[in-house]
Amino acid sequence: MARKAIGRSVPRVDAYDKVTGRAKYTDDLADRNALIAKILHSTIANGLVTKIDTGRAEKLPGVVKILTCFDVPDIEFPTAGHPWSTDPAHRDPTDRKLLNRRVRLYGDDIAAVVAEDEVAASRALRAIEVQYEEYPAATDPEEAMRDGVPLLHEGFPNNILERHSVLDGDFDEATKEEGLIRVEGTYQTPTVQHCHIELPTSYAYMEGGRVVVVSSTQIPHIVRRIVGQALGIPWGMVRIIKPYIGGGFGNKQDALYEPLNAWLSVQLGGRLVKLELSREEAFYGTRVRHAVKVHITSYVRPDGRIVARDAKFVSNQGAYGSHGHSIVSKCVTAFRQLYNDERAKRAEAVTVYTNTATSGAMRGYGTPQSVFGMECHADDIAARLGIDPMEFRRMNMMPVGYTDPFSKNVNWSDSFNQCIEKGREYIGWDRKRELYRNQSGPVRRGVGMSLLWYNTAVWPISMEVSSCRMVLNQDGSVQIQLGETEIGQGADTVFAQMTADTLGVPFESVHVVSTQDTDITPFGTGAYGSRQTYVGGMAIKRTAESLKGKILRFASERADTGPDALDIDDGFIVRKGEPGSALFALSELATDVLYSMEHSMHFTAEETVQAKSNAYSFGAGFAEVEVDIPLAKVRLVDIVNVHDCGRLINPQLAAAQVHGGMSMGIGYGLYEKMLYDPGTGKLLNDNLLDYKLSTIMDHPHLEALFVENPEPTSAFGTKALGEPPTVPCAPAIRNAVFHATGVAANENPLTPHVLFPLFKAAGLIG
Amino acid sequence: MRQFATIRCTINGKVTETAVDVRASLADMLRGEYRLTGVKKGCEVGECGACNVIIDGECYNSCIYLAIWADGKNIRTVEGLEGPNGELSEIQRLFVEEGAVQCGFCTPGFVLTATAILESAKSGQKYTRDELRRELSGHLCRCTGYENILKAVEKAVSRASA
Asked: Is B40 on the interface with A (CB under 8 A)?
């Protein structure tokens, strides 16, 4: 019997091309003669452009065209990478034009220059004169909500994009119980950026009267729709091509500058125009993770059982809607589900426009923020009651068998306890919690933990669908195509593994068409929501089975037996249940059939699967830190994430995915934060020198462990792994610092700026 | 005004000559004139390391190295590492085996620094794990957490000094 591909750490299908530098990314494919577009950004954070004088700039050599916010179509469009909703009530905010007269952040897009080269374009930007009517800027959501603060968008009083509340049980009655202890805390997470190493880049041209955009995007089919909407042209007039991309992490789950790029080309009769952002523009002009502040009040019994909890979330949307309130909605869902309050829970959430970078999707989609609040709070409660934080969690976390009434997600297995056990053993929890209990020196150690809650794909919030096409070649190998994208995570490789085993061909015989082209690639919505192995897996399974059925029906004629008596194994037609019984090779059959003089056939299959299920993906993270109290500095000594993402298709790639998520989580916990000048609204650290992305010197060894409980609703037993790894690290680090010092910092990242005043207030620093 | 200068240098073993805009960076020259697109650009100010190339045996961020400085130099890019029949170099093979590649955008830069490290290790230079981290710290990666990259480089160096 053939060696199965699933469960093996086969090398990535794109590894050779990537280590040799042959893999082509958007800018590598762009013709050198492309015209260069650059964007003029506002130098105020809030106001109105009253006049733009391009006269001087237009006369500069090499300048081809200058278009401003006074020239763009009067169309406001959404940018979030969600599937389109046929229900207007469920659509994303539609609140920006291609270029905006009404300036809402420092760095807003107000004009664009197209020139023969970069130097000419940059010179023209400097020669454009702009006049503004300026309004005071509000960078903080609580300030932006105040009465009288200028409104960023019409129709959104107090700059509130959206708010909602939920109530489970009778909260007031529940909290009347005698003997309850009330614990409160406010937890603040920062604005951070994705920092994919490839900058957002695209180029656009027209061919056959249609506009083509080649772009570094996670969501080609969605970007096609948005470009159509933004330009006011039929969606079929747009073609999006997505080559290899240098990371996305959710930033490229948004239409960034593809609509503007397409429009610029159209304004020039379809000439080739390239639009490549600088690192600085990527920081202020693309998307960031919502900064969320949450106030949690818990009512617990002295033994640790939570009776009721209340949470109030405030989410900073920044200048434009993008993914909007969806993010904090997920914060609320995580809040409702991670802990099982005995009697009641209540939550309120508000998303507020401010004059800062637009917040969108970023790895974890609200859960890094929500879990930071909840998991810091969990340790605060445990400390208050004098019980072990791990025991507190075990007593209150979502029980096995829990079924969410909305998503119908079921907590099938005891993954929380299994993950906790593995992490506990790795970090030496019991011994170290005791060992570090009473330290007195200037350098102290601590261990902390955090749970993580996540789900898989976006059903039932949005439609979930994936389509797959398979084409059999004469040699018995097969091409596969999906709308689901390779963004670095290894999707193409696991898709090939799934195809090989379902179809019965060797892994090497599966050729993944990595590039998505909306003219050719079957519809799928792309990389987000940690959905692709789950939903894409369903499409692959059905398509491979369909292709196999066609092949076996034909093979049965030749084998003189019914198709049900046959199977394909390792590229051979075999008798079912007898893997070694090779009747003939698939390659032979495929060639004979294609060139048959009697009835030539081309074996292909294409199937679409709509997923109407979702799956929980749980885990736990543990960290050990050493805190230098006089320097208010934290050194991460050891860190481990334990995940139950169901069955592992490729263990090495799964671990690698966890490493990357942990690195991002460590940055969130210790280093990364976008800083704004509160007066001008200008971003102060819009580059990789001042914004502290972790280097290889800032991490200890990253340990990735797994528990494998195959997910019953999943075609291959898998569930989310893309986003979850980034979630538990920051709270685990914070709780380790709490253990080491007794100081509970309620704001990440835990920089010396945050810790020093807290250590001083606690009397640790004289 | 555009001014051009003639740059003669050796690129991946081949003697070359071209006229470049005197303001151009080496990264622009390699990508634009020679289509060596394995030289990536992630920041253009020497922060990320994606454009790293080896010049006369030493690693440089080619985005902040003027093309005119390359005159007379010996330059190696990732395209020069594979064998005549596309065989991977030892470092490239270990990056594949250890799962050190994800989106691949930082990979060529890392592979070149790792190549320089390995070459020095073969000439007797010893490295501790912390020293390897320091040598590799000029490269930013957002996908891998650096874990498998370090594994690949450590393995290569330990083989070289074995």
From this structure: yes
Mean pLDDT of B57-70: 98
Model pLDDT, residue A3? 80
Tell me the one-letter amino acid at A10: V
Please give the residue of chain B at the shortest CA–CA distance from A198: B42
pLDDT value at position B45? 96
In this prediction, residue A580 carries a pLDDT of 83
pLDDT band for position A303 (cuts 50, 70, 90): very high
In sequence order, what are the residues at sequence separation of 6 or more whose Cβ sits closer than 8 angstroms to the Cβ of residue B15?
A: B8, B9
- Say if the Cβ atoms of B37 and A21 lie within 8 Å: yes
Exposure b/e, B132-160, CB count within 10 A at least 16 = b: bbebbebbbbbbbbbbbbbbbbbebbeeb
In the chain, the amino acid numbered A36 is I
Per-residue pLDDT band at B2 (split at 50, 70, 90) = confident
A289 strand-pairing partners = A192, A360
Give residue limits of the domains in chain B: 4-80, 90-161
- Which pairs from A678-682 meet CB under 8 Å and 24+ separation? A678/A139, A678/A140, A679/A137, A680/A44, A680/A45, A680/A106, A680/A137, A681/A44, A681/A45, A681/A46, A681/A105, A681/A106, A681/A137, A681/A139, A681/A355, A681/A356, A682/A45, A682/A106, A682/A107
Q: Which residue out of B88, B131, B135, B142 would a mutagenesis test of the A interface target, given it has the greatest number of A Cβ atoms within 10 Å?
A: B142
Yes or no: say if B92 and A20 are a contact pair by the CB < 8 Å rule: yes
Nearest to A32 among B32, B50, B79 (CB): B32
A566 band by pLDDT with thresholds 50, 70 and 90: very high
> In terms of Cα–Cα distance, which of A699, A640, A631, A697 is closest to A444?
A631
Dihedral sign for Cα A212, A75, A88, A146, please.
positive
Average pLDDT of span A191-200: 98
- For residue B51, list chain A residues with Cβ-Cβ distance below 8 A: none
Tokens of A726: 């980034």
Q: Which residue in the set A11, A487, A652 is minimally distant from B103, CB to CB?
A: A487
Residue with tokens 């061919």: A207
Give the B window 10-39 contacts with A, CB below 8 Å.
23, 31-32, 36-39
Global pTM value: 0.98
pLDDT of residue A712: 97
Which residues, in sequence order, are bridge partners of residue A609?
A: A466
Share of chain A above pLDDT 70, in %: 100
Cα–Cα distance measured from residue A375 to residue B80, given in angstroms and rounded to the nearest whole number: 50
Q: Name the CATH topology of B4-80.
A: Ubiquitin-like (UB roll) (3.10.20)
Which one of B28, B82, B103, B117 makes the best mutation probe of the A interface by having the most chain A beta carbons within 10 Å?
B103
Q: How far apart are CA A274 and CA A118, in angstroms?
A: 10
Cα-flanking dihedrals φ and ψ of residue A487, to 5°?
-125, 20
Tell me the pLDDT of chain A averaged across its residues.
97
Domains and CATH numbers, chain A: 15-22+465-610 (3.30.365.10), 31-135+200-276 (3.90.1170.50), 288-458+613-761 (3.30.365.10)
Contact A687 B82 (CB under 8 A): no
The minimal CB distance from B105 to the residues A247, A655, A661 is found for: A247
Q: What is the DSSP letter of A10?
A: P
CA gap A161, A140 in Å, rounded:
14
Residue A317, min C-alpha distance to chain B (Å) = 24
The CATH code that applies to domain B90-161 is 1.10.150.120
Q: Which residue has the tokens 């130097």?
A: A119
Residue A1 has pLDDT above 90, yes or no: no
- From residue A605, give the alpha-carbon distance in Å to each of A242, A551, A562, B86: 23, 10, 21, 34
pLDDT digits (tens, 9 = 90+) for A28-61: 999 999 999 999 999 999 999 999 999 999 999 9
Provide the ipTM.
Answer: 0.98
